[in-house]
Amino acid sequence: MNITEIYNHVRRQSEEICSLLNTEDYVPQPVNFVSPPKWHLAHSSWFFEEFLLKKHLPDYKIYDEDFCFLFNSYYNTVGNRSFRAERGHITRPTVAQVYDYRNYVDMHIQLLLQLKDLQIHELVELGINHEQQHQELLLTDIKYILGCNPIFPVYDENINWENQQNSDSGFLTFSEGIYEVGHNGDGFSFDNEHGRHKIYLEEFEISQSLITNAEYLEFIEAGGYSNFNYWLDEGWAWVNENEIKAPLYWHKIDNEWHMFTMAGIQKVDPEAIVTHISFYEAAAFAEWKDMRLPTEFEWEAASFKLDWGKRWEWTNSAYLPYPNFKKAKGAIGEYNGKFMINQMVLRGASCATAKHHSRSTYRNFFHPNERWQFTGIRLAKK
Fold first, then answer.
1. 153 located within any domain
2. Residues 196 and 130 grouped into a single domain
3. CATH code for position 308
């Protein structure tokens, strides 16, 4: 597909994700780290308007001046924005108006792409990948919104993500030596993957499988959430302050563990891969097993032999810049670089990741307490 076809395809995908929602589902924001579906649809359109149409399409007329304030996420360079925790307050514009906005932006992007300018095409490609990131956030935010509803509504009864299983088992051994990590320059990548460089790794062993619900249940039943010895100090405080006793979306009903899924509430499948795990929980589980989480460099070095893409996998690496990392000038430079503190790297992809949006060098990142994404655990041996 050419750039125009890819753009159109990705834009349709976002709307297909929302096609299963009722109008009332577009607005709630139960917690500040979740954004309403309506906001995602508008923000991904604002991105194209702000960074492409306003700057590169002659005589472009802004759709609505208020939209920049309402749907800017964190770009200080382009002006004021509404507070993240208050996105659920935006009952106006309506859902219908947001779809009109998307159509307006799409129409003008088609005109812009006719200019066949390489810089424009590169920015459109960035916008496409940005929208794919928001498609995953759309799905996980929708799940959180519905999961807060006491009747546990079904999003799509045909989605079976939470019951995915491993296809491999055992450990792989990698010898000590020099390895190269970082993007090699072929195809799209984000700036935080740049600065390909050599690293030295000691010999290590890494699991071919992710931890299952059955394995994690053993941790729970062994008192894993009540024994401080397994937890990092911050993790132990998080467990106690929030009364955490199991992964997110797990509920004990009639003395049996159930889990809220995209297909509604179901019994926990012991053979399925555990998901919605925080870094704190992943690290505690690894300590209980007398193992550890792999570093992001070990993960990347091993990735060509691993089956991945079902869960985002926590690593034991802080989110930091690679050697020679450079932020782009202007607002685009705010995309990744300013978040390189107090976050941990996740590798791979998840069942909710958009197709063609994963690669072995991709560096996802979240704070260690966050677990509403489809996150899991892969172990390495000490």
1. no
2. no
3. 3.90.1580.10
Question: With 90 as the cut, is the pLDDT of residue 330 above it?
Answer: no
Structural domains counted in the chain: 2
CATH of the domain at 74: 1.20.120
Q: Integer distance in angstroms from the first to the last C-alpha of the chain? A: 46
Task: Answer whether 0.90 is exceeded by the pTM.
Answer: yes
| Average model confidence (pLDDT) across the chain | 97
Both 128 and 65 in a single domain?
Answer: yes
Alpha-helical segments (H) within 177-328: 213-221, 233-242, 279-288, 296-302
- Residue 93 preceded by cis peptide, ω within 30: yes
Residue 381 in any domain: the answer is no
- What are the backbone angles phi and psi of residue 179, rounded to the nearest 5°? -125, 155
List the domain range (segments joined by +) for residue 313.
161-376
Nearest by Cα to 278 from 348, 347, 376: 376
Residue at which a domain ends, from 89, 116, 147: 147
Beta-bridge mates of residue 257:
252
Question: What are the CA-CA distances from residue 17 to residues 13, 139, 208, 303, 357 (Å)?
Answer: 6, 7, 31, 29, 16
Whether the CB-CB separation of 359 and 187 falls below 8 Å is answered with yes
Give tens-digit pLDDT for 76-131: 888 889 899 999 999 999 999 999 999 999 999 999 999 989 999 999 999 999 99
Give the number of other CB atoms < 10 A from CB of residue 118.
7
